[in-house]
From TrEMBL:
Any Pfam family the entry gives: TilS
SUPFAM superfamilies registered for this protein in UniProt: Adenine nucleotide alpha hydrolases-like (SSF52402), MesJ substrate recognition domain-like (SSF82829)
Segments forming domain tRNA(Ile)-lysidine/2-thiocytidine synthase N-terminal: 27-186
Enzyme Commission number(s) from the entry: 6.3.4.19
Domain tRNA(Ile)-lysidine synthase substrate-binding stretches: 229-288
Stored HAMAP family: tRNA_Ile_lys_synt
Keywords: ATP-binding, Cytoplasm, Ligase, Nucleotide-binding, tRNA processing
GO biological process, one term: tRNA processing
NCBIfam families registered for this protein in UniProt: lysidine_TilS_N
GO cellular component term of the entry, any: cytoplasm
Class in the EC hierarchy, top level: ligase
Entry GO MF terms: ATP binding; tRNA(Ile)-lysidine synthase activity
Protein name as it appears in the record: tRNA(Ile)-lysidine synthetase
Length: 294
């Protein structure tokens, strides 16, 4: 395989469902050494992309430094440069989130990952458990940075196996301290048992539908001036909420209670309201203005 002589028919059925950019495009790939990221590496190479592979060692396993050697066994014969970063995360609360933050701090602004349709299904469920709305339930957006969202996890593993690719078997992927692992190993199998069908494609399809709806609502909200008190008060509440979130997204979007207070200002029920972070919304001459309090 590593001499570049793999028959095209090995990759073609999968490439037809990938969303890679055009041949010759320079891309950075996040490569953990697991089957998904190794399949990403192989498919991106087969698609003719100019690849830089980036691996981050979180030092969460005693043997984690060996992962780069497993990856290098593939990248070197293919002439793909491999960049290795070592970060210290350490055990403690929010380990998964802290590891992700440390990892993405090492990546360039645009990084291609090996998330699959199974990851998409898990993300929908995780966001649902967190009380997300349409935006959160639309999960990951398909495109050049997530080119494998139409590929299944068993297909990435099968590709690596068929080409005799050694992969990293990361035991943290079965650690039940992490919500995603419990969704993967407990919730999704239970859903499959209850429904007598594979829920992953259904959840991914739901994400696609909600994403299209969410994009339309965002477009409509951008046409609404959130500082026009009269227009804001007359707009349907979901649209008004969305326009306000777009306006006040920095440092983070306001919650529902804050949005309702702002709408009370827009209607003229009150003259002003606090929205947190030492900020206040005031109404004057049918306009809403944002003020930073001293």
């Amino acid at each position: 395989m590593t001499d570049g002589a793999t028959p095209p028919f090995v990759f073609e059925p999968l490439l037809a469902r990938c969303t890679f950019p055009t041949r010759g495009t320079a891309v950075s790939l996040a490569i953990s050494g697991g089957p998904d990221s190794m399949a990403l590496l192989l498919l991106a190479h087969a698609a003719g992309l100019k690849i830089t592979a980036i691996h981050v060692d979180h030092q969460l396993r005693p043997d984690s430094s060996n992962d780069a050697d497993i990856i290098r066994a593939i990248t070197e014969p293919l002439g793909i440069p491999l960049v290795v970063h070592t970060v210290h995360v350490g055990n403690g609360p929010n380990l998964e989130a802290r590891a992700r933050t440390a990892r993405y701090a090492m990546f360039p602004t645009e990084i291609m990952t090996g998330h699959t349709e199974d990851d998409q299904a898990e993300t929908v469920l995780i966001n649902l458990l967190r009380g997300a709305g349409a935006q959160g339930l639309s999960a990951m957006r398909p495109g050049h940075t997530r080119p494998l969202l139409r590929i299944r996890r068993d297909e990435t593993r099968s590709l690596c196996s068929s080409l005799n690719i050694t992969i990293v078997d990361d035991l943290t992927n079965t650690d039940t301290r992490f919500l995603r692992n419990r969704v993967r190993h407990e919730l999704l199998p239970l859903m499959s048992d209850l429904s007598q069908r594979d829920p992953a494609p259904l959840l991914a399809r739901t994400a696609d539908v909600l994403r299209a709806d969410n994009d339309l609502l965002d477009e409509l909200a951008r046409a609404l001036d959130p500082t026009d008190a009269k227009a804001l008060a007359a707009a349907p509440a979901p649209l008004a909420h969305r326009a306000l979130r777009q306006w006040l997204a920095d440092p983070y979007p306001p919650d529902l209670a804050t949005l309702e207070r702002i709408l009370a200002v827009a209607r003229g029920d009150v003259l002003a309201c606090d929205i947190g972070e030492n900020r206040q919304i005031r109404r004057s001459k049918q306009r809403l203005t944002l003020h930073i309090l001293g």
